[in-house]
């Protein structure tokens, strides 16, 4: 009975640690932004600790190096299970979690870049309808989109250019009458910036054939917005599939907690007996294979 109580306490502690990590790491940035924009009144004195340099560095480390949270969780499980196997698993999980998080960040950046291209089309159309010439309108639209993109490129103002190294070439071409379509096509090679090739085509047609640039950019913006809506609808339809993947990932943890609640000691059995080690290896392999296959299926549904 003592072993069962210890196992139950271990799973409860692991659950508490996971909940704390989730609350600290996975907080939505929109909530913080909404509080800054819409909550009136001076800042409370008890919140002044957030400006301390040490705490700022610690918070930055927590937010930007989330994969290292695998290590304290592994240490906790190693202490409760009296085994070094959780430490080895935690060390192996760090690069995998880092790779997953970088891929997730790249996908988000691609989506934001695609939204910025649509916003660029809208800004240029607005400048052209206001009577500005095309080069000046494109420069103003690029500056406006760059100001909006500072929140997700480089982490703040001046942190980077949303078009990468090609932004200076596009601005120079638009300002001094250079090859604007060529510069836009070069910038379209960036992740999520494929819509700039449409802007380059509209610009080329307007320059060579005399067609209206406003009408072309307006239609391109409509197409990009429609693609965004289709992407959001598809993501909403696949939310149930992703929920199934998460449930499948948590089932083994729930099984261990249920075993501990029934009075068994699943951690001791899995980490200190030959049969438990065999089950742990086979179960871990099957769990990883199942999650990989399920994620691949869902990702295939998300692909354009």
Considering the chains and any ligands shown, give keywords for the structure.
mainly alpha; 13 helices; transmembrane helix; membrane; 304 residues; transmembrane; Type II secretion protein F
Structure write-up:
The protein is mostly helical and 304 residues long. Helices cover 78% and strands 0% of the residues. It has helices spanning 2-25, 29-38, 53-64, 70-81, 85-129, 134-149, 166-176, 180-187, 195-209, 213-237, 239-261, 266-272, 274-302. The N and C termini lie far apart (54 Å). The chain crosses the membrane at residues 7-25, 73-97, 238-263, 275-295. Keywords: Membrane, Transmembrane, Transmembrane helix.
Overall pLDDT: 76
Fraction of residues in H or I helices = over 70%
* Helix and strand pattern: HHHHHHHHHHHHH
Spans of at least 5 consecutive residues whose pLDDT stays below 50 are 21-50, 155-160
Number of helices: 13
Globally, the shape reads elongated
Would you count the extended β strands for me? 0
List the helices and strands and how they pair.
Blueprint: H1 2-25, H2 29-38, H3 53-64, H4 70-81, H5 85-129, H6 134-149, H7 166-176, H8 180-187, H9 195-209, H10 213-237, H11 239-261, H12 266-272, H13 274-302
Protein name: Type II secretion protein F
Organism: Streptomyces cyaneofuscatus
Keywords: Membrane, Transmembrane, Transmembrane helix
Summarize the structure.
This protein is mainly alpha-helical. Helix content is 78%, strand content 0%.
């Amino acid at each position: 009975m003592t072993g069962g109580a210890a196992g139950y306490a271990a799973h409860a502690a692991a659950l508490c640690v996971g909940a704390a990590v989730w609350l600290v790491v996975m907080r939505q940035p929109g909530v913080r932004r909404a509080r800054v924009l819409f909550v009136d009144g001076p800042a409370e004195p008890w919140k002044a600790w957030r400006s301390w340099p040490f705490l700022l560095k610690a918070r930055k480390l927590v937010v930007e190096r989330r994969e290292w949270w695998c290590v304290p969780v592994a240490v906790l499980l190693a202490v409760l299970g009296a085994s070094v196997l959780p430490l080895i698993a935690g060390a192996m999980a760090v690069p995998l979690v880092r790779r997953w998080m970088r891929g997730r960040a790249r996908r988000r950046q691609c989506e934001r870049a695609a939204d910025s291209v649509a916003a660029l089309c809208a800004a240029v159309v607005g400048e052209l309808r206001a009577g500005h010439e095309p080069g000046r309108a494109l420069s103003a639209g690029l500056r406006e989109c760059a100001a909006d993109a500072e929140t997700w490129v480089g982490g703040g103002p001046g942190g980077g250019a949303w078009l990468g190294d090609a932004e200076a070439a596009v601005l120079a071409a638009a300002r001094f009458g250079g090859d604007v379509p060529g510069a836009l096509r070069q910038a379209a090679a960036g992740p999520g910036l494929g819509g700039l090739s449409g802007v380059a085509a509209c610009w080329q047609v307007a320059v060579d054939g005399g067609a209206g640039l406003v009408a072309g950019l307006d239609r391109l913006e409509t197409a990009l917005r429609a693609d965004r809506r289709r992407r959001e609808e598809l993501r909403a339809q696949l939310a149930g599939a992703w929920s199934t993947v998460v449930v499948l990932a948590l089932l083994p943890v729930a099984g261990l907690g249920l075993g501990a609640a029934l009075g068994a000691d699943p951690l001791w059995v899995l980490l200190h007996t030959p049969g438990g080690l065999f089950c742990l290896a086979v179960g871990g392999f099957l769990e990883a294979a199942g999650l990989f296959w399920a994620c691949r299926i869902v990702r295939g549904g998300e692909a354009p």
